Every structure is written in structure tokens, then in C-alpha cells.
Amino acid sequence: MPSNRQVNINTESVDNYLKAILALGGPEEQSVSSTALAQRLGVAPASVTNMLQKLASARSPFVEYEKHRGVRLSPEGKRRALEVLRHHRLIETFLYEILDFPIEEVHDEAERLEHFILERFEERIAAKLGHPKIDPHGHCIPALDGRMSKQDSAPLIDVEKDGEFVVDSISDRDAKLLKTLKAHSITPGAHLRVTKSPHELVLRAGKGSKPLHLALSAAGAVRIRSTN
Ligand SMILES: [Zn+2]
After folding, report:
1. How many other β-carbons are positioned within 10 Å of the β-carbon of residue 6?
2. DSSP string over 16-29
3. CB-based contacts of 139, cutoff 8 Å, min separation 6
């Protein structure tokens, strides 16, 4: 096999792999198993292995991959992943703030557009929005140099006893859940009263909004922080 094999793969799918590795690796940048990656991307484990081998053998590889250890981003891969994430979150903010898209629709649009915008376009969007640091889901928008401020938050599912919290962020990946939460005024920054029971959480945001009974299986999508 030639050592400098040129890899010719669709940019969109490469970007999606890099973003998924970034998200699954978390702030500690842990290595990610191909099974976890296959689940997140909704593709067969064999295609994931195949793709990772291609990515790792490129001339300036985006990933470091060993079959039994999983995969990590190379510095170049991390740079690209953060750039795409910045595009994604800026586009979501733009669609929400300027074009008045409903919150549950911005993610799918951004998934398509994020791969194609260039620096000039990205700069204009950022300037128009006043260089936002947080997107409408409550997630940090990476700065131009890739820096991201750390968010001090915890998954709602980890709440141990009843109490009051502030909604920090909500996953953008489930449009239906986003819509339901919005209908109950559960949006980033909202104050939230949480009551636990064995199979569900009862959530109340603000006065006058009806309580939402959220299955524990859905509670991973919401992150909260303390009220002070
Ligand atoms: Zn999104």
C-alpha cells in the first residue's frame, strides 16, 4: 500500500465524523469507540471502521485511529471540527434571530449549510449578530481561534433531589422534544422547578406554564445549572 495515499472523500461526511468525535470525546477529548460513533451517525460499524482507516491514512490526517483503542482527533482534525461547529452554531443563531425560524427547525438547516460557508460569509454573520458567544440552544459558539468557554452545567438526568435550577442548554438533535419544551417555556435561561419520581421528572418553568412530565429517557437532552 502506498504510504502517501491520497484520500478522496466527501467533505460533508468527513465533517460529520469530526464533529461526532469532538462531541463524543467531550471536554477531556477521550478516545471514542467506533461503536459509539456508528450509533451517533446512524451508520453500520463496518462503514465507520472503513472511514476511520481512510481518514487516518490521509497525508495530513484528521484523526489518530487504532482499532482497539478507538479514535481521537489530530490537532488538524480538531481545528476543522471546531470550525464546522462554529459555522453550525452561528448559522443556527442567524436563522433564529434574523430569519425567525422556529427553534426546532434551525438544526436541520444548519446541518446542511455548515459545510459550505466560507470565512467571509461566516464573518458577516458573526458581525451582524454582534459576535454571539451562545447559540439559541444555549451552547457555546467556538471563537475564531477555536476557543470555547467552559460551561458549568450538569445533565438534568443527574438531578438527585427536587429543587430549582436554570436551564443551561438543550440538545439540538431532537426537534420534537425541542418543540415540546418550548411549549412549556423550557428554554435556555428559564428558571425550572424539578420534581423527581422513579420514572419521570416533572418540570415547571415560570408561573402559569403547565407542568411537563418528562420521561427519564429524554432527560439527557437538557442541561441545567444552579440558580446562583
Ligand atoms: Zn444544531
Report:
1. 8
2. HHHHHHHHHHTTTT
3. 89, 169, 172
pLDDT in tens, 46-64: 999 999 999 999 888 999 9
* Ligand 1 centroid from CA 149, angstroms: 18
pTM assigned to the model = 0.89
CA–centroid distance, 124 to ligand 1, in Å, is: 20
User: How many A from CA of 176 to the centre of ligand 1?
Assistant: 14
Q: Report all structural domains of the chain as residue ranges with CATH numbers, in order of start.
A: 11-73 (1.10.10.10), 154-225 (2.30.30.90)
Alpha-carbon gap, residue 226 to 153, rounded angstroms: 8
CA of 217 to the centre of ligand 1 (A): 20
Distance 71 CA to ligand 1 centre (A): 23
